[in-house]
Amino acid sequence: MSFLKSLFGAKEAKFVEVAPFGARFEVPQGETMLEAALKNNVPFPHNCTVGTCGSCKCKLKAGRVSALTDFGYTLSQQEIAAGFILACQAIPKDPLTQVEVESGANDSPKPEQFVGKIVATETLTHDILKITIELDRPIKFSAGQYANLKYPNIRRARNYSFADAPDRDGRKQISFFIRKVPKGAFTEDLFAGRLADVPIDVDGPHGNFHLHASAEPMICIAGGSGLAPLMSVLEDARKNRVKRPCAFLFGARTQADLYGLEQINQVAQNWADKFVFLPVLSHEPADSSWKGARGLVTQFITDAMPGIDWSKAEGYMCGPPGMIDAGIASMTEVGMNIESIFYDKFTDESHISKMP
Ligand code: FES
To answer: Which one of 91, 225, 250, 319 has the lowest number of neighbouring Cβ atoms within 10 Å?
Structure first.
């Protein structure tokens, strides 16, 4: 039989099993693992489908795959070494491939389409604005997720993380922290006040960044507008009386780039366990009044939480790709498990994971 197959070029069927969904399906020739999963109604986390966002990251447990584009563009060296792949870029090579998607990734509400209007704006820094959108009906989401925003003037949706904690019955008003991008069509319109009466299409929730159930210490790092998903996660954890030590490091260029301090302080005051907040400035003038930490935020992990068993700690990071990569390197260096490090990479105008 296999002799005949090789003679006539027939290909052996390729099957994929996905945990924790318990799904098994065939991947036809020329299709990626993600494409076949979605055709088979497997709720595989995804967004960009072109290998840039990391939403479809999963762990290869058995079998081999070939990559359409190098996984290394999006995944860190440490993740690749630990066996992580991107399903949207993976073509199975063996008759059976087994992968595992991060647990909890399938527990989020299903995305829906909403329409809303901006009902409030607040200047947070010289280049970050908080906007509040009132929707036509409440949206349910999990802390750490994001939504796609679009209006007629822009060709592609922009993607921003919810900055508030979710509400069990859904939220009709949702907020986002938005950094101004020079020549970015959306933020130019927004910062110029041209979106005041414009209906905004909101599609969401998306993404699988979320707090994992554990009592072990958690170390969070935010950079720039990456504060939004972490505030949502921390505020939600505070409301739910999550009891575990937390260190929160916020990296900014100068004092003028720090924001949300009152909100962070509220969380810190009401946290059910030890909470350390450490802002770190990378470009603060040497002769300024700043008495706090200076340098790269990812270098202060052990200062924020000395003496813990790093092999049990979890890391949560949201910010620019360079900060995330440096954070993964620092965290694994001190002994953290790569599988306990979770992140959401942001680019200038929105998440990298959110670029369609
Ligand atoms: S969906 Fe695979 S990397 Fe974005």
So the answer is: 91
Task: Answer whether residue 53 shows pLDDT above 50.
Answer: yes
- Between the CA of residue 342 and those of 17, 79, 317, what are the distances in Å? 23, 11, 6
**Pocket test residue of 88, 102, 159, 208 for ligand 1, highest count of atoms within 8 A of CB:** 88
Q: Which domains does the chain have, with CATH numbers?
A: 12-101 (3.10.20.30), 112-206 (2.40.30.10), 218-354 (3.40.50.80)
Write down the pLDDT at residue 299. Answer: 96
pTM here is 0.87
Q: Which residue, chain included where needed, has tokens 């280049």?
A: 127
Give residue ranges with CB within 6 A of ligand 1.
Answer: 46-49, 51-56, 74, 86, 88
Pick from 197, 195, 192: which is nearest to 158 by CA? 195
> Parallel, antiparallel, or unpaired for β 158-161 and 275-281?
unpaired
Kindly give the residue spans of alpha helices, DSSP state H, lying in 49-168.
77-81
